[in-house]
Amino acid sequence: MSLTSILTYFFAGYTGLVVVFYMLSTVVPKAAFVARGLAAYISLIICATYGAIASIVLRILGQEQLAQWAAGRAFKYVMALTTGITFEVDDPNKYLETVRPAVFIGNHQTELDVLMLGCMFPKYCSVTAKKSLKSVPFLGWYMALSGTVFIDRNSSKNARDAMAGAAEEIQRRKQSVYMFPEGTRSYTKEPGLLPFKKGAFHLAAQAGVPIVPVVVANYSHVLHIKSLVFNGGRIPVKVLDPIPTTGLTTDDIEELTRSTRELMLREIIALTQKARGQPIATPARSDNGAAISSGRDISR
């Protein structure tokens, strides 16, 4: 049996399985979690393959900085078709198109944020990754081919030192980067933010480029893994005004991190409230910086 035949049978069987679970979800709602999970997984594989091929072609053409944008846009359209999920980006001032280079930062909720990046990722932008990943077969090769900005944490004593090489690369290549300052997914059912790490802010200040916050409404009604919820839907995203970093020093990073986090938290709450059409309690800060509900209605 040829490879083509094997792949044909595999995709036919896989598609049939997804369709069965989608049909079953009309009777057993939790089946939608399995259906969309399977659909999302095969969509990711297809788009990752496309991304790897696109990276090689764009590298040859000297346009490797477009590789992650190309792969992301493919994922956007494939996921809309297979899962019925998309992120709607509100960027009235066209910052995604006109601000370059920049450090884009956003809140990190679940694995679905990969799709969010696919929907909003600007051209000439990449994610960041630990430099150690560069030597990992396939993944590291794709990252290198697609223009990923690598950060050498192992040889650095602090966040500022770790970002020095990346800052130089951003300036030299005029390459924007996207980072999640929370450092991990929050998986929260209500709008909130984990404490911010300072790496993205050190990077922006050292490179002398603006920080562009991007906020995503809480979408636990679309995906909440612990509750086995995985529904279709349109999730709002808002691009905020750039925050200049020119002239800032290490002493300014603490305040920059704090004020940016508070700004983003307010915007996330407002965006989620607008999307849900209902008031949401204002989170108050705990001692460790995490958001906790104060029980106060922000609509008052």
Q: Could you describe the 3D structure shown?
A:
It is built from 9 helices and 11 strands. The strands form 3 sheets. A 7-stranded mixed sheet has the order 1-9-6-2-5-3-4, sandwiched between helices. A two-stranded antiparallel ribbon has the order 7-8. Mean pLDDT is 88; it is low at 286-300. The protein is an alpha/beta fold and 300 residues long. Helix content is 45%, strand content 17%. The chain starts with a helix and ends with a strand.
Terminal CA distance reads: 68 Å
Order of helices and strands: HHHEHEHEHEHEHEEEEHEE
Instruction: Give the overall silhouette.
Output: globular
Structural class: alpha/beta
Mean pLDDT: 88
Condensed summary:
The chain is of the alpha/beta class.
Keywords:
alpha/beta, 11 strands, globular, disordered C terminus
Secondary structure layout plus pairing:
Blueprint: H1 3-24, H2 31-60, H3 67-83, E1 85-90, H4 95-98, E2 103-106, H5 113-120, E3 125-130, H6 139-145, E4 149-151, H7 159-173, E5 176-179, H8 199-207, E6 211-216, E7 223-224, E8 229-230, E9 233-239, H9 253-276, E10 281-285, E11 291-297
Parallel strand pairs: 1-9, 2-5, 2-6, 3-4, 3-5
Antiparallel strand pairs: 6-9, 7-8, 10-11
Helix pairs in contact: 1-2, 2-3, 3-5, 7-8
